[in-house]
Amino acid sequence: MITKEQEDILLEQGKMLPLMEEFYTIQGEGFNTGLAAYFIRIGGCDVGCSWCDVKESWNRKLHPPTFTDSIVQNAAQQPAKAVVVTGGEPLMNNLDYLCQELEKLEITRFLETSGAHPFSGNWNWICVSPKKKSPPVKSVYSRAGELKVVIETEADFEWAEENARLVEPNCLLFLQPEWSQVNKMMLPITEYVKNNPQWRISIQSHKYMRIP
Question: Does the pTM of the predicted model rise above 0.85?
Answer without folding.
Answer: yes
